[in-house]
Amino acid sequence: MRKSFVVGTALVSFLGLMVIFAPGRLIGQAEESEGGGAKKLAEVCPLNQIMQDVETRNKKLNSSVRRATKTTLKGSAGKGIVHDAYMLALLADNASRYPIPADSKGNAAEWKKLSLAMRDHADTLAGAAKAGQATEAKEAYSSMQNSCTECHNKFRKEGSTTGGF
Ligand code: HEC
Fold this sequence. Notes:
Blueprint: H1 2-44, H2 47-66, H3 70-74, H4 76-95, H5 108-130, H6 134-155
C-alpha cells in the first residue's frame, strides 16, 4: 500500500517536471535545428544560386508587369506574373532562413526584415495580378525592387555588379 503510494508520488512528480521542462527543451531543439538547417541549406544551394533564379524571374516580371493592364492580367501573361511572383515569394522566404553573408554591413535582424519584405511584396504582387489590379501590381512590383536594392546595399560585397541592382 505504502509502496504504491511512493511510486505514484514519484510518477506524478516526474510527469510534473516533464511538463515544466519539456517545452523549453523542445523550443531549444527547434532553434538549434533551424540554425543547423540554414547552414546545410546554404551549403547545398548557395545564396547566389537563389539570386540567379530570382534574377531570371524578376526580368520576366519586369517587362510583363510594366505592360500589364486589366485585360493582359486575365490572360496567360497574368498567369505568368502570378506564378513568377509566388516563386519569388518562396525564394525570398527561403533566403530569410539563410545565415547572413560574411563581412556584410547589416545584421541578422535586418536580413530577416529585408528578405521578408521582398517576400511580402512579391505575395502582394501575385494577389494583385490574380485579381486583375494592374495599378496595385505595378506598385507592389516597384516596392519589391526597392527591397532588392536595399538588401544589396547592406549585404552584397562592394563592387559586385552581376545583374540585380
Ligand atoms: C535579403 C537580401 C536580398 C534581397 C531581398 C535580394 N538580394 Fe540579391 N543578393 C543578395 C546577396 C547577399 C547577394 C550576393 C550573394 C553572393 O554573391 O554570394 C545577392 C546577389 C544577387 C545577384 C548576383 C547573383 C550571382 O550571380 O552571383 C543578383 C542577380 C541578384 N542578387 C538579384 C536580386 C533581385 C533581382 C532581387 C529582388 C527581386 C534581389 N536580388 C533581392 C541579397 C539579397
